[in-house]
């Protein structure tokens, strides 16, 4: 009887240890449902033009991004081939939609894009899928909880000394 109790206790301990290793619900979806990477975050408020940058959390992006806490606005100036830069704001909304607002410096040209966003590669990449199929998907690396970095069309880092980063902005209070 003692031998049987020891085996039962060992199996229970093993089951608990393995349960702690299971992927979270956002990473594991049945095959007949949408991929786990389509989970989106709840809204944390729309960004206003008076938004201010907060101190950046440079800790590495967590394994399996907590998308429920990730929605928000990211802003920065991206390189431009024929102007001083593109002031870009990406608003990731909690309902799975997004809006991108790009303003080309010195030209005054503005581009607004909307669509849906998804998380890929265990929370290490964000894909923006535009409503207009005339436009290409945009890919961003999740550098940290407070920073995205634009990737090329193949999802690879852009080899350049220029800054392709967007930082989280917090609504002004």
Automatic annotation (TrEMBL):
Residues 27-43 have a biased composition (Low complexity). The keyword Iron-sulfur does not apply. Keywords: Signal. Gene3D superfamilies: 2.40.128.640. Residues 1-28 form the signal peptide. It comes from the Bacteria. Residues 26-47 are annotated as: Disordered. The keyword Signal applies. InterPro entries: Cu-R_lipoprotein_NlpE (IPR007298). This is Copper resistance protein NlpE. The lineage of its organism: Bacteria, Pseudomonadati, Pseudomonadota, Gammaproteobacteria, Lysobacterales.
């Amino acid at each position: 009887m003692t031998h049987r109790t020891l085996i039962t206790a060992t199996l229970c301990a093993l089951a608990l240890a393995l349960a702690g290793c299971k992927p979270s619900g956002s990473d594991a979806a049945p095959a007949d449902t949408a991929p786990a990477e389509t989970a989106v975050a709840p809204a944390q408020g729309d960004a206003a033009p008076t938004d201010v940058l907060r101190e950046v959390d440079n800790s590495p992006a967590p394994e399996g991004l907590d998308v429920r806490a990730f929605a928000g606005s990211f802003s920065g100036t991206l390189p431009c081939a024929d102007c001083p830069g593109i002031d870009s704001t990406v608003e990731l909304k909690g309902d799975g939609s997004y809006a991108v607002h790009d303003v080309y410096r010195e030209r005054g040209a503005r581009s607004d894009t909307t669509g849906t966003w998804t998380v890929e590669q265990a929370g290490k990449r964000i894909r923006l899928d535009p409503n207009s199929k005339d436009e290409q998907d945009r890919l961003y690396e999740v550098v940290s909880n407070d920073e995205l970095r634009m990737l090329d069309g193949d999802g690879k880092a852009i080899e350049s000394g220029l800054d392709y980063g967007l930082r989280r902005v917090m609504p002004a209070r």
